Here is the input.
Amino acid sequence: SLGDVAYVVAPNPFHHMFLPVAFQMFPEATLYGPAAVQKKHPRLPIHLLDASQSFPWEPHIQHVLLDGLRIDEWVFFHQESKTLMLTDLLFNMQGSDLPTKLMLYLEGVHHKLGCTRLVSTLLLRDRELLHATCQGILNWNFQRLLMCHGRPVEKDAQNAFRKAMAFTGASS
Here is the structure.
Protein backbone atom coordinates (compact mmCIF):
# COMPACT_ATOMS: atom_id res chain seq x y z
CA SER A 1 0.00 0.00 0.00
CA LEU A 2 3.02 2.32 0.39
CA GLY A 3 4.17 1.73 -3.17
CA ASP A 4 6.86 -0.24 -4.93
CA VAL A 5 10.18 -1.07 -3.27
CA ALA A 6 12.70 1.04 -5.14
CA TYR A 7 15.88 0.52 -3.07
CA VAL A 8 17.30 -2.16 -0.81
CA VAL A 9 20.23 -1.06 1.33
CA ALA A 10 22.74 -3.15 3.27
CA PRO A 11 23.92 -0.44 5.69
CA ASN A 12 27.05 -2.24 6.91
CA PRO A 13 29.05 -5.43 6.28
CA PHE A 14 27.15 -7.34 9.00
CA HIS A 15 23.61 -6.83 7.63
CA HIS A 16 23.68 -8.34 4.17
CA MET A 17 22.53 -11.93 4.54
CA PHE A 18 19.07 -11.43 3.01
CA LEU A 19 20.14 -9.34 0.01
CA PRO A 20 19.78 -12.29 -2.40
CA VAL A 21 16.24 -12.94 -1.12
CA ALA A 22 15.37 -9.24 -1.31
CA PHE A 23 16.70 -9.13 -4.87
CA GLN A 24 14.47 -12.09 -5.79
CA MET A 25 11.45 -10.52 -4.13
CA PHE A 26 12.05 -7.04 -5.59
CA PRO A 27 13.94 -7.49 -8.87
CA GLU A 28 13.15 -3.91 -9.95
CA ALA A 29 14.74 -2.46 -6.79
CA THR A 30 18.27 -1.06 -6.87
CA LEU A 31 20.63 -2.64 -4.33
CA TYR A 32 23.11 -0.54 -2.36
CA GLY A 33 25.86 -1.45 0.07
CA PRO A 34 29.42 -0.70 1.15
CA ALA A 35 32.38 -2.25 -0.69
CA ALA A 36 32.62 -5.09 1.85
CA VAL A 37 29.05 -6.13 0.98
CA GLN A 38 29.82 -6.00 -2.74
CA LYS A 39 32.68 -8.45 -2.11
CA LYS A 40 30.42 -10.80 -0.13
CA HIS A 41 27.84 -10.87 -2.95
CA PRO A 42 29.80 -10.59 -6.21
CA ARG A 43 26.88 -11.95 -8.28
CA LEU A 44 24.45 -9.25 -7.14
CA PRO A 45 24.30 -5.84 -8.86
CA ILE A 46 25.09 -3.85 -5.72
CA HIS A 47 25.72 -0.13 -6.17
CA LEU A 48 28.36 1.29 -3.89
CA LEU A 49 27.35 3.44 -0.94
CA ASP A 50 29.86 6.24 -1.22
CA ALA A 51 30.01 9.37 0.93
CA SER A 52 31.04 11.50 -2.05
CA GLN A 53 27.89 10.93 -4.08
CA SER A 54 24.20 11.70 -3.77
CA PHE A 55 21.50 9.05 -3.88
CA PRO A 56 18.03 8.94 -5.43
CA TRP A 57 16.25 8.78 -2.04
CA GLU A 58 17.44 12.29 -1.22
CA PRO A 59 16.09 14.73 -0.01
CA HIS A 60 13.42 12.60 1.71
CA ILE A 61 16.01 10.44 3.43
CA GLN A 62 19.38 11.83 4.44
CA HIS A 63 22.34 9.61 5.17
CA VAL A 64 25.81 9.75 6.64
CA LEU A 65 28.72 7.35 6.89
CA LEU A 66 29.81 6.87 10.50
CA ASP A 67 33.31 8.24 10.29
CA GLY A 68 35.80 6.86 12.79
CA LEU A 69 34.82 3.18 12.68
CA ARG A 70 36.81 0.32 11.16
CA ILE A 71 33.74 -0.73 9.17
CA ASP A 72 31.48 1.23 6.87
CA GLU A 73 28.18 1.78 8.64
CA TRP A 74 25.54 4.16 7.35
CA VAL A 75 22.94 6.07 9.35
CA PHE A 76 19.70 7.30 7.77
CA PHE A 77 17.28 10.08 8.69
CA HIS A 78 13.73 10.17 7.35
CA GLN A 79 12.72 13.82 7.57
CA GLU A 80 8.96 13.41 7.25
CA SER A 81 8.66 11.02 10.20
CA LYS A 82 11.64 12.61 12.04
CA THR A 83 13.12 9.12 12.43
CA LEU A 84 16.81 8.28 12.79
CA MET A 85 17.61 4.75 11.60
CA LEU A 86 20.66 2.88 12.92
CA THR A 87 22.03 -0.59 12.36
CA ASP A 88 24.71 -1.66 14.85
CA LEU A 89 25.79 1.66 16.38
CA LEU A 90 23.31 1.34 19.26
CA PHE A 91 21.41 -1.51 20.89
CA ASN A 92 18.29 -1.20 23.06
CA MET A 93 17.54 -4.77 24.14
CA GLN A 94 16.47 -6.79 27.11
CA GLY A 95 17.46 -10.42 27.13
CA SER A 96 14.82 -13.03 27.88
CA ASP A 97 17.10 -16.07 27.90
CA LEU A 98 20.37 -16.52 29.77
CA PRO A 99 22.74 -16.51 26.74
CA THR A 100 21.22 -13.27 25.41
CA LYS A 101 21.26 -11.63 28.85
CA LEU A 102 24.89 -12.63 29.26
CA MET A 103 25.89 -11.30 25.84
CA LEU A 104 24.10 -7.99 26.44
CA TYR A 105 25.64 -7.67 29.90
CA LEU A 106 29.15 -8.34 28.57
CA GLU A 107 28.57 -5.83 25.77
CA GLY A 108 27.43 -3.23 28.34
CA VAL A 109 23.97 -2.73 26.84
CA HIS A 110 21.63 -4.88 28.94
CA HIS A 111 18.41 -2.99 29.75
CA LYS A 112 19.66 0.28 28.25
CA LEU A 113 20.23 2.12 25.02
CA GLY A 114 23.94 2.00 24.36
CA CYS A 115 26.85 1.39 22.09
CA THR A 116 28.24 -2.13 22.44
CA ARG A 117 31.78 -2.69 23.60
CA LEU A 118 32.45 -4.29 20.22
CA VAL A 119 31.73 -0.98 18.50
CA SER A 120 33.15 1.34 21.17
CA THR A 121 36.46 -0.53 21.41
CA LEU A 122 37.32 -3.05 18.67
CA LEU A 123 35.55 -1.32 15.80
CA LEU A 124 36.42 2.21 16.92
CA ARG A 125 39.23 3.66 14.80
CA ASP A 126 39.07 7.36 15.68
CA ARG A 127 36.95 8.69 18.57
CA GLU A 128 37.21 12.32 17.38
CA LEU A 129 35.92 11.47 13.90
CA LEU A 130 33.04 9.49 15.36
CA HIS A 131 32.30 12.41 17.69
CA ALA A 132 32.18 14.80 14.72
CA THR A 133 29.79 12.48 12.89
CA CYS A 134 27.57 12.26 15.99
CA GLN A 135 27.49 16.07 16.22
CA GLY A 136 26.29 16.18 12.60
CA ILE A 137 23.62 13.58 13.34
CA LEU A 138 22.46 15.64 16.32
CA ASN A 139 21.84 18.54 13.90
CA TRP A 140 19.07 16.49 12.33
CA ASN A 141 15.74 17.12 13.99
CA PHE A 142 14.95 13.50 14.86
CA GLN A 143 12.32 12.62 17.44
CA ARG A 144 12.33 8.86 17.01
CA LEU A 145 15.18 6.36 16.97
CA LEU A 146 15.02 2.95 15.28
CA MET A 147 17.78 0.40 15.44
CA CYS A 148 18.17 -3.17 14.24
CA HIS A 149 18.73 -4.45 17.75
CA GLY A 150 16.03 -3.56 20.20
CA ARG A 151 13.07 -1.39 20.98
CA PRO A 152 12.55 1.97 19.28
CA VAL A 153 13.08 5.14 21.27
CA GLU A 154 9.85 7.12 20.88
CA LYS A 155 10.48 9.99 23.32
CA ASP A 156 13.42 12.35 23.78
CA ALA A 157 15.38 10.47 21.10
CA GLN A 158 18.04 13.14 20.60
CA ASN A 159 18.93 13.19 24.29
CA ALA A 160 18.92 9.39 24.38
CA PHE A 161 21.30 9.32 21.40
CA ARG A 162 23.52 11.99 22.97
CA LYS A 163 23.71 10.05 26.24
CA ALA A 164 24.41 6.71 24.50
CA MET A 165 27.22 8.28 22.46
CA ALA A 166 28.72 10.26 25.37
CA PHE A 167 31.88 8.11 25.26
CA THR A 168 32.81 9.97 22.04
CA GLY A 169 32.38 13.37 23.65
CA ALA A 170 28.96 13.77 21.99
CA SER A 171 27.41 15.00 25.24
CA SER A 172 29.05 18.38 24.85
Notes: Residues 52 and 65 are 10 Å apart (CA to CA).
